[in-house]
Specification:
Layout: H1 2-27, H2 32-41, H3 45-65, H4 77-81, E1 87-89, E2 92-94, E3 96-97, E4 103-104, H5 116-127, H6 130-143, E5 149-155, E6 163-169, H7 180-187, H8 200-208, E7 212-219, H9 221-226, E8 232-237, E9 245-252, E10 257-267, H10 271-279, H11 290-298, H12 300-303, E11 317-323, E12 328-336, H13 338-347, H14 353-358, H15 365-368, H16 391-394, H17 407-415, E13 425-433, E14 442-452
Antiparallel strand pairs: 1-2, 3-4, 5-6, 5-14, 6-7, 7-8, 8-9, 9-10, 10-11, 11-12, 12-13, 13-14
Helix pairs in contact: 1-2, 1-3
Length: 453
């Protein structure tokens, strides 16, 4: 009897491994489990499937005998990845990908490192978004690790609600090519991509013809409640020229396929070209001080080593975007570390510019005396935009020092610094010329950061 019990116990553990491979893969639309076992055991796949059915029968019988449900032994979707800090793909160890789907190698080798998916789980926990967590797990299971890019965004105003966007890059480093109809099938229990009216079969054809570089959907409270998609964002490539990448984004819905944004990305060595590109826009503050424009748009805390001991990293790429012609522009910085991410999110639109400008580092001698310090200690940081000594033009106000991210999220990121040391992050913001400022001031409309799962 004891021998029989040990045999059944050992067989139970073996069967569980097989069932987890077959059942888990099959539920989410993969056949790689059967193919793997067929190659590994050198048994035809048809016999593998027959054997699995016999194993399942045995498992069910054993579960009744032991008075334990089979479900208690099968790992749930959420538990499956909760402690998976290291992702292996084609022999390369990665923790995440950039917003255009390129691999980010770990900055540190600690086994305590979170990957970008685990970080996203933390964000969803703070924001209370359990439905999106289930969506992320389903997509990760169906499409593979880090083949979905996530964006987390907040409008730059009081009471702004955190929103999300999910992207699928066609031209990234993954060998897997996401197809819109497959993504739609995976999302169907929660989101109906067909409700956008965009022809998904047409998008599939664009993927097959190598014309589509990316597609995405916006995730807000309304979508999560109704499941309906207003539009699908479609990114088409066009000639790069001197740029690292260029993409035109279109809004695809029932009655329109309309150009909305144009993105041009450059490697960090070409930051002067990025600056020239930004200056060509109607949203460049060309009547402001050069130091002001350089600091708030080129963000030296992200893109340079002006304080090398504090900011040792430089982003791998900077991207300028012209958005929703001609309402706004955008700037994106890729490859920063967790300390830079926390600094960016917590310091607001003017970031390190406050300390640089108030110390006079960026101001020419003939302009330093034109800066007027506000008597309120809370508003004692300076922003010199012109030769005028008017305090309305010279004071860096409190609204410049926050993006309106939830404090709970900032605290969570701060508490997770050690676990996030291996990750690189991408960040961005939207901006436009402040009405009535005569191109001396920029208003910031939104900020965002990105990862993958």
């Amino acid at each position: 009897m004891l021998t029989c019990f040990c045999f059944v116990t050992g067989l139970w553990r073996y069967c569980l491994c097989v069932v987890r491979i077959i059942v888990h893969q099959s539920v989410f639309g993969h056949t790689r489990g059967e193919e793997f076992l067929s190659l590994f055991l050198k048994i035809p796949k048809s016999k593998i499937m027959l054997s699995c059915r016999h194993m399942m029968t045995l498992l069910v019988c054993c579960s009744y005998c032991s008075s334990s449900s089979l479900d208690s032994f099968l790992v749930s979707e959420e538990e499956e990845y909760v402690s998976r800090a290291v992702t292996m793909e084609n022999g390369e160890r990665i923790l995440g990908r950039s917003y255009i789907g390129e691999n980010y190698e770990p900055l540190t080798s600690s086994e305590r490192n979170y990957d970008s998916f685990e970080f996203f789980q933390e964000i969803l926990e703070v924001t209370g978004n359990t439905k999106l967590k289930r969506i992320a797990v389903a997509l990760r299971n169906r499409l593979g690790h880090h083949n979905t890019i996530w964006g987390t965004k907040v409008p730059n105003r009081d009471g702004g609600v955190v929103e999300f966007e999910l992207y699928w890059a066609i031209d990234g480093d993954s060998t897997f090519v996401p197809v819109p109809t497959e993504v739609a099938s995976t999302l169907r229990p929660w989101v109906d991509m067909n409700s956008s009216g965009c022809d998904l079969n047409m998008l599939d054809d664009l993927v097959r013809n190598d014309a589509l570089s990316m597609f995405s959907i916006d995730i807000d409270a309304t979508l999560l409640e109704t499941g309906r998609v207003n539009k699908i964002n479609v990114y088409l490539e066009y000639p790069n020229g001197a740029a690292y990448f260029r993409s035109k984004a279109f809004e695809c819905s029932l009655d329109r396929f309309e150009l909305s944004n144009v993105y041009t990305g450059f490697e960090i060595a070409e930051d002067a070209v990025v600056n020239a590109h930004a200056k060509s826009s109607v949203h460049y503050p060309y009547n402001a001080l050069k130091s002001y424009a350089d600091c708030i748009l080129r963000r030296p805390d992200l893109s340079s080593n002006f304080i090398s001991s504090v900011y040792p990293l430089r982003p791998l790429m900077i991207c300028h975007a012209s958005k929703s012609f001609p309402s706004r522009d955008g700037m994106y910085f890729s490859g920063i570390d967790v300390d830079q991410l926390h600094f960016f999110l917590s310091r607001g639109s003017h970031g390190a510019c406050s300390s640089r400008i108030v110390s006079g580092v960026s101001l020419s001698p003939d302009l330093r005396n034109s800066c007027i310090e506000d008597k309120n200690p809370a508003d004692s940081l300076l922003l010199c935009e012109s030769n005028s000594s008017s305090s309305t033009n010279s004071v860096l106000r409190l609204e410049h020092l926050t993006w309106h991210w939830p404090k709970t999220l900032l605290h969570r990121i701060d508490s997770l610094r050690d676990r996030l040391k291996g990750l690189r992050f991408d960040v961005g913001f939207d901006y436009a010329i402040t009405p009535g400022s005569n191109h001396r001031r920029v208003s910031f409309l939104k900020s965002a950061f990105y990862g993958s799962f």
